[in-house]
Amino acid sequence: MSLSLADIHNIATLARIELSGDDAAATLDKLNGIFGLIEQMQAVNTDGVEPMSHPQDCAQRLREDRVTETDRRDAFQRIAPQTEAGLYLVPKVIE
Amino acid sequence: MIHASIAELRAALDARSLSAVELATLFLDRIERLDGQINAFITVDRERALRDAEAADAAIAAGRAGPLTGIPLAHKDVFCTEGVLTTCASKMLANFVSPYDAHVVARLREAGTVMLGKTNMDEFAMGSSNENSHFGPTRNPWDVSRIPGGSSGGSAAAVAARLVPVATGTDTGGSVRQPASMTGVTGIKPTYGVCSRYGMIAYASSFDQAGVFGATAEDCALVLSAMAGFDERDSTSLDRPAEDYARDLRAAADPDRPLAGLRIGLPREFFGDGMADDVRAAVEAAIARYRELGATTVEVSLPNARLSIPAYYVLAPAEASSNLSRFDGVRYGHRAARYADLDDMYRKTRAEGFGAEVKRRILVGTYVLSHGYYDAYYLKAQKLRRLIADDFAAAFARCDVIAGPVSPTTAWKIGEKSDDPVQMYLSDIFTLAVNLAGLPGLSLPCGFGAGELPVGLQLIGNHFDEARLLNVAHRYQQVTDWHQRRPALAE
Description:
CATH topology of the domain at 6-237 and 254-259 and 465-484 in chain B: Amidase signature (AS) enzymes
CATH class of the domain at 5-43 in chain A: Mainly Alpha
Mean pLDDT of chain B: 97
Shape of chain B: globular
Strand content of chain B: 5-15%
CATH architecture of the domain at 5-43 in chain A: Orthogonal Bundle
Structural class of chain A: mainly alpha
Largest sheet of chain A: 2 strands, antiparallel
Shape of chain A: flat
Largest interface: A-B, 52 and 73 residues
Oligomer: heterodimer
CATH class of the domain at 6-237 and 254-259 and 465-484 in chain B: Alpha Beta
Strand content of chain A: under 5%
Low-confidence stretches of chain A: none
Low-confidence stretches of chain B: none
Mean pLDDT of chain A: 92
Helix content of chain B: 25-40%
CATH superfamily of the domain at 6-237 and 254-259 and 465-484 in chain B: Amidase signature (AS) domain
Order of helices and strands of chain A: HHHEE
Distance between the termini of chain A: 42 Å
Strand order of the largest sheet of chain A: 1-2
């Protein structure tokens, strides 16, 4: 499974990581190496095998639908890049 | 005092022949003098350490000391520590002062330990050499031109150089066991779910597990007992009765054959040609020693073990791509200085904040989860995970613990493998399967290879068998002295 430069740019877009022209070429090279390694998986027949998402096959624990968190907004926003009136500021999205 | 065990330190502190402040100062001064050669620490917080040490002294004076009161330790910089820089060795979090404590940090604080600082690591726990750090590589105290292993290289090196008696780490694919092996210390990763992951900055959520480094299994057992336990804030934390992991170490045993009855499984796939000669020699000598201690050995098979590399390098990056999507410059951490719009802000922030290996793994993970590729990669890897876990279950029907190498080689030179990610991934061959199966694993020093470089023996247990693993390591440490050897640092 060999990736192309277009593939790399698509993945970088999905991952929201800017990739310059030079970086993209170098990354393509390294990623194709990694995918070469990953291809080894195809050597084994896994028909009928149940996928395992948790090492002890546990399901996520549920809890009561009660508010248990305290309001720590001030502490959390103290370290934010830009805030105002309790809101996080980002570049305008809606025109 | 710097080479004393936790038990010896406890006795000295309780007898008031040494105060917690003096003890913390001893190690803090040592860090100041020697860490320049090793770069094990990202942050050292002397003021806070001395305040905590004073509180420990008060507790000791009031007769309220527990087993760990006043014991200095360091935390891997992946654990959130309230009011203290928590960087994950990344530019992305280089300015992140955590507003809360990780569960493990809080438990160790409640137990009275004195945190001296935060240790260096591979960025976001992704790496096997501690070369992927925004703050420079950590160096192996046994040979400072070599890697200490990763990703918990800073914690391992700090304990090896006795800059701190114990340190926490995390192990997602081997990141406690492998650096322990490379630096000649003992390190344990418990069963998945035993330690809470709350506040442990996530890399791969179904693999990540907190662990501990110490000079001995006994020291590790004491710290693990304080770290472990149910936490409702981690939905994968297991609700099980509290355990004293040192209990088997105290049990009386036949002094000549303390491990009589123990069946050690030796996976044939781990003893093929995947080990360097010097590693093989040390590992086989250790196994021979175990037979002298009364254990029997039995050959077992883990036929799908070789697939642990591709399975892990699909699943862990996939989980990482999801976990690291939170780093977007909005609420904390790095934000790009210039951007055209919100999307550009995300793209530039993440391009600037993440190092090359982290970016690579996010991209791999994004790809294997994307439309059209999910079945062939992610789902396939989850099926392999099942096969690997089943292999261990079958093996444990015939043995009590599994033994083998930790790493194919001893520590390599800084820069030797950093150009080729695949070479680095291949070196994880003996450790990954344990995380895929969620089993407990431990590395203990068992000898030296060429160039006086440490070799570790890996012990793998069945689920929740930490106490037995630690005891098996402990009995070996009663009759050998590999764990007492110290690197020679320019003092």
